[in-house]
Amino acid sequence: MIYLKLLRPKDWAKNLFLYIPLFFAGEIFNWLKVLQVFEGFIAFCCIASSIYIINDYADKEDDKKHPEKRNRPIASGAVSTGTALTIFTILTIAGFFLAYFISTKFFSLLGIYFFLNIGYSFGLKNIPILDIFIIAIGFPLRIRSGGSIANVDVTVWLNIMIFLLALFMAAGKRRDDVLLKITSGDDMRKAVKGYTLDFLNALLALISSVMIVSYFMYTVSQNVIERHGTSRLYLTSLFVMAGIMRYLQIIYVNADSGSPTKILYKDRFIQISLVLWMVSFYVILYIK
Fold it and tell me: What Å distances lie between residue 116 and 47, 49, 109, 213, 248, CA to CA?
């Protein structure tokens, strides 16, 4: 069980972003492509888990100061560094081996994700602003990967929206780190020195505003209307706005801006907003 915890399987939900191009292209029921993307999902999970391990290895001393992260397998001493690095090596080889047989482009995109995050783990995460940009870039790489596997075009608007969403959540996470610094007096991350609550509050307001406008522009763009044969996708914006507003409420009112994945798993309002968005998109896109 402790080794499974080391792999952070709950965070594999992030890799479902590989399926977003299929959903937006109206091909989510093309089972051949769904299975092809699933192979990429497995490869991405292997590489993502290897990154989690190497990041925990690099962060083990800082994690010991964190109220939650100190329970991670490496920081707590439940898994030795030697064992962790062995599992890291196995997962890395397995992930790239599978990716190589899926497609050359996917292999390259996965390689970019891997080396970018290795750089993040060993120093880049200590540079304010750059740290959240690197986290955010991982999500457009996921949708580009899914699009390349399924041979589906990924629009510029989709890239922009996914990047902004990831940047928004990363900024929320950093705000949580700043709050922990204020309450505990310890720097949980070196990059926290480059952030303040006021700065992050302004950043979250800026990104959320641009993200909502970008989604509206995506739904009413001529290219999207012509591709999907409908001009009613703007109606789905209601649920996008509700989800963003709820996340802001969690951050500002509930003061709980920790892991976005954890929030997704436990918050019913966001879950319902997400389901209603998917249902509304499905009805407009697939049922005509």
Answer: 12, 14, 11, 29, 29
